[in-house]
Amino acid sequence: MKLYGSERELLFQNPTVKEIVEKYRTVWALNHSSAVLGWDLETHMPEEGAKPRAVATAEIALLRQKLILSLKDLVERAERHDLADLNDYEKGVIRVLRRAIDYNTKIPPELVEKLQKIRAESTLSWRIARKKSDFSIFRPYLEKIVELKREEAEKLGYVKHPYDALLDLPEEGLTVEIMDKIFATLIPGLKKILEKVESKQSDGDSSFPMKNHPLESMKYGEGIMEKVNAEILKILGMPEKSFRMDISTHPFTTGIALKDVRITTRYEGIDFRASMFATIHECGHAIYNLQISDELEYTPLRSGASSGIHESQSRFWENIVGRSRQFVQVIAPMLKEKLAFLKNYGEDDLYAYFNLVKPSSIRVDADELTYNFHIALRYEIEKRIIGGEIGAREIPSIWNETMMGFLGIKPKSDSEGLLQDIHWSGGSFGGFPSYTIGNVVDGMIWHTIKTKKQQQQQQEEEKKLNLEDTIASARFDLLKAWLKDNIHNFGATYSPQDLMKRTFGEGYNPEWLVRYLESKYLA
């Protein structure tokens, strides 16, 4: 079902749903305001603004909770009398609001307020702790957040594991059982590929994939790299009037509105691919936000299907597009023009540099083969700490021991280890697994496009879509069109698992990700 032409005017015909959507506009306005405040917190707000900002965000959250709960009677009326007669979009509105109402009914205002206040304060604490590489500064805040998240899980309820309640929030229907099964397939498959690659590297074979490259230590000026990233935005076709990029410690994307999407990147002055791929990654998120149907603005459906589906889009553009040989061919002339130190490097050199296989202690710098080991580490820690098996004091030793077991490396400092991510300071527990879900879905997208198993209603030109040729010709509008028709357009209309069944005909299948990586690194 596509939202084209006159069909857009028929999205919400049911009287009850129409009333719900109209009343929801105020909730949307609060979400819009919170998004602006969150973006400012990470980009421009001075340190002394943390406490008043915490109060402001807490008050907005409480008001939003009240307004969502005020829709309860209308949602229940639709569920009692109209649900069977609703179209997919109307059912989506009811499903999304039912989840929000259930959350806000089960989670008391006092807990919401406590979470909002500790998030703003702990984010500042995390920044200081990360700068000083001292986990003890952040630990008291983390302990408080864990306590509150355990309370949240208990109030939400679960069947088998308290972590299930938190996993379900960013990824509807996700459970410990599902994630355990995914990692049971994924980790052994990745280990086999990694072992073969490392064996080849240890034999002194200098062909692709390489472990090290001279460009890793090459320094660059921030001003020059800003120009490179600006060109990347143009190549990807990012719209100037509805998109912007800023700088932050940890790159992120904020969808303030469907026509107001903002990303950030970072500049570390060395190893230019880190900044470039952070930019491409966040552009993937932004493209998803920008391609949700305009008709879903101001409604409960104006977001993505889930964090995992969103992550699949960022990883698709970063890895499958951005690290491909074809994309290297597209951007190589621009890179050599902007970065003088590339004058003696050809396209094969750039491709090897972009696709190094080398275990790293930093998640956001990890290559495709090792990235999911980082997520498995965080998943296991979160599962155990929410389940009450471990405390915050134990995290440093568990982190270091697990990293040694997975990748054979130990972080040199707290900043390179458990303080590298902003997520826990923001109260995000249950969010990390969405990155692996995104990678898994990413592999499914690759498989679907490669095998041309598109749905029957797609246009004839889309059926002829060739991934490599499309990237080589920089026809990213065709890739965007495919993603829009199959994923983006619907916003949150379908649950993530329902959306996957519509698009791929199956649920989470890590096998396609393993096959993609095999075809790239072992071919």
The count of DSSP E runs of length 2 or more, i.e. the number of strands, is 3
Weakly predicted, low-confidence segments: 1-8, 453-458
Question: Helix-strand pattern, N to C?
Answer: HHHHHHHHHEEEHHHHHHHHHHHH
Radius of gyration, whole Å:
23 Å
The 3D shape can be described as globular
Q: Into which percent range does the helicity of residues fall?
A: 55-70%
How many helices?
21
Please give the largest β-sheet: 3 strands, mixed
Mean pLDDT: 92
Structural class: mainly alpha
Query: Termini distance?
Result: 38 Å
* Arrangement of strands in the largest sheet: 1-3-2
Give a description of the structure.
By secondary structure, the protein is mostly helical. It has 21 helices and 3 strands. It has a 3-stranded mixed β-sheet, with helices on both faces. Helix 10 (273-290) crosses helix 11 (307-321). It is globular and about 65 Å long. 41% of the residues are buried. The model is unreliable at 1-8 and 453-458 (pLDDT under 50).
